[in-house]
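Record pair follows.
FIRST:
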Amino acid sequence: MLPPIARTSDYATSHEGAAAVTVSGRRQTAMGMCLACVEQNPDLTAGEIGEVTGLGHVPAQRRLSDLKNQGKIDAGPPRFWHGHRQVTWRIMQRQLSFLEPVELDHPEHLARRDEGSHGG
């Protein structure tokens, strides 16, 4: 489930529009387009992503914000696009949580375990 995109202080029409774009699937589709673009072309600005995807700058920026809030992408170094500085976007590097299980029978882990048991 996606979080709301209208602020509590926004007009009712903003909430109606936000619900419509989410319920229709347009929001998720645009997020998928932006995510694919970032995967294939890291370090583009929102304006460039909007051009590549055909979404346009502002709709792309909105969906990039959604993806950032979900922890899927992160802002990179800013650069100029049409005379204005914008952050670039890249895929968030996955970090293992200390609560996340690790595959102990993975060949890499077995090799490390075997290396440690051979010497003294």
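SECOND:
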Amino acid sequence: MKATNAETNQATTTTSDSAGLFKLPLLSVGSYRVEITKAGFRKASLAGIGVTPGVDTGLENIKLEVGSISETVEVTTATPLIETTQSQITNTFDTSDVASIPGLQENEGLDLLAVLLPGVSASRDANRANTNGTGFVVNGLRGRSNDQEIDGQYNNDNSVTGPAIFVGNSEFVNQYQITTNNFGAEYGRNAGSVVNITTKSGSNTWHGSVYGTESNSKLTALTNQQKNTVWGKASQSHRTSTTNLPGQPSVARGSRTRSSFRRVRRRDFLPKRSARKWQPDA
């Protein structure tokens, strides 16, 4: 059995047991081509097998046809309607979701994705924890019951809970995954949900993106306090952001890297307010 990553061409091999069962653990996130070979049978090939963190991807039953090993049979499988390999409830947002949902490209926080799911609601000011965009509660449990991870590694603030490191650059994210119920045995510590942000990696080709954002107070609605003339004229602000996100292969060590650079300029214009002399009541 051999699984080859479509972007990096990294191959992982294993052998099946006497019952024909096999497992390929610790694969990187991505799309794979799986090839199954055995002497006296035609090679079976499956393309477009997606691998996501925290999900056991099953290939169902694959039958090998008698023939020469040099002959290849392309096998197509459809996504099963029912998950048969595990009972946990997991939702995954890929790069297309992150790029298309409003607010994420403007660096407003990735946890805005969580409140789009059933059983998840915003906790607003009752969260009392760090938030990456918004506080949220899952299945009625406190916002402090959520577990935060980056690439499967611990990312919880030990003092007030919530994320310790905030991933705000959406271009740096490969997948945003949240498990809301029936956690697997590898999870612990928290009872609310498990949020895992998977970062992008490099590939065999040079690639990258450059983009900019602008936030101008003249295009933003005023708050009730800013509308109140007692406080004087509302302050004005202007913020521009330029991000460079290159990804490149490393031939010497056979690895792939990806880096991010962001330049932010912010200017605040405070209004001039006339001083008022206090006078005692007559």
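COMMENT: DSSP finds two helices and 16 strands in the chain.
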